[in-house]
Amino acid sequence: MSSSAKQVVKDFYNSDLLNDISVLEKYIHPDVELLWNSTDGLTIFNFNDIVETFQEIARTYAELRVEVSHVLEEDDHVTTRYKYYIRTIENPDEELGIAHFISIWQVKDGKLYRGHQVSQPAMDQDDTNGSYHKVKV
After folding, report:
1. Once rounded to an integer, what is the mean pLDDT over residues 25-45?
2. Which of the residues 45, 46, 53, 100 could staple to 34 if both were Cys, CB 3.0 to 4.6 A apart?
3. What is the spatial distance between Cα 18 and Cα 107, in angstroms, rounded to a whole number?
4. CA pair distance 110, 121, nearest whole angstrom
5. Based on the structure, what is the number of domains in the chain?
6. Which residue segment(s) compose the domain that 82 sits in?
7. Residue among 83, 78, 84 nearest 104 (CA)
């Protein structure tokens, strides 16, 4: 029995890919294309780019946690709203919010295939105490 597109995306964001980079092979399609709009502008990632990004995150941070507030599905497309939190190697006792994301993923063959992502750095004045409670997951 195959998982729904929504379940595939949820499982990916709930995985421990910082400690097990092989998770990417399980959830990311080999022909993936991710178009990411950030404060640096548009960046287009393929599979190897995504692997290299998470390898660098694993070298840089002691822990990465994703807090998902929305997961919406329509056919093979899934939209998510989430925030990344990290713990640094130098100060593993303090968790810091680093960025907010909204992504739209097309799921093909049970894997994330085409993605559009927008991110914004987290700031001290962010009101996340009430805005990141789970709404539609």
Report:
1. 97
2. 45
3. 22
4. 30
5. 1
6. 5-121
7. 78
